[in-house]
Specification:
The protein is α/β, with parallel strands linked by helices. The protein contains 5 helices and 6 strands, in the order E-H-E-H-E-H-E-H-E-E-H. Helix 4 links the parallel strand 4 and strand 5. It is globular, with a radius of gyration of 14 Å.
Length: about 160
C-alpha cells in the first residue's frame, strides 16, 4: 500500500516537516511512502497511492500559488477516493496556516478525495484540520507530526 506526501517548499521547512510526517507513517507496517515536491511528482507512485498528504507553506494567509496551480492543472491525475490529509508551515502564529489548509480542503473535495485529520477523537495531540508548524513556536517538535503521520498510516490501512 502506498502513501504520497506532496509539498511545495521555498525555504525547505515544509519539505522537512513532510519528512517527519513520513517517519510517522513508516511506523505502520505495510505502507510505502514517498515525499515529493509538486514540481517533481512520480505520477505512477501517486496514482497507486491510497493516501495523499498535502503540505504547503503559508503565504499571504493562504496556500502558495504553486500548490494552487498544481491542483488546478492536475487533471491527468485521478485523486478520487484517496484519503487526503494536510499540513502547513508558517512564520507567524497569526499567519493564516488554518486558512491555507482550508483552501486545500476545498480543492480536494472537488477532486473527490476523502478528508482525514485525526481530529480530537484520538486524544492529544488534537489535530483539527491538519498539522501546523510555526517557526519559533513548535518548529522543533517532532513528536506531533510523527503522531499525525502514524494516524494517517493507520487510517489508510483501515480503509483500504
Amino acid at each position: 500500500m502506498k502513501v504520497s506526501i506532496l509539498y511545495d517548499s521555498k525555504s525547505g521547512h515544509t519539505r522537512e516537516v513532510g519528512e517527519i510526517i513520513k517517519k510517522g507513517i513508516e511506523r505502520v507496517d505495510g505502507i510505502e511512502i514517498k515525499c515529493m515536491n509538486i514540481e517533481e511528482i512520480d505520477k505512477e507512485f501517486l496514482d497507486e497511492s491510497k493516501g495523499v498528504v498535502f503540505g504547503t507553506p503559508t503565504y499571504l494567509a493562504n496556500t502558495t500559488a504553486n500548490m494552487k496551480k498544481w491542483l488546478d492543472d492536475s487533471h491527468d491525475i485521478n485523486l478520487e477516493g484517496k484519503l487526503a490529509s494536510f499540513y502547513a508551515t508558517a512564520d507567524y502564529i497569526w499567519g493564516g496556516a488554518d486558512t491555507a489548509i482550508l483552501t486545500l480542503i476545498n480543492q480536494i473535495i472537488v477532486k473527490g478525495m476523502l478528508i482525514y485529520s485525526g481530529g480530537a477523537a484520538l486524544g492529544k495531540p488534537f489535530i483539527h484540520l491538519g498539522y501546523i508548524s510555526v517557526n519559533g513556536v513548535n518548529d522543533k517538535d517532532i513528536d506531533t507530526p510523527m503522531i499525525f503521520g502514524e494516524r494517517i498510516g493507520k487510517k489508510v490501512k483501515e480503509l483500504f
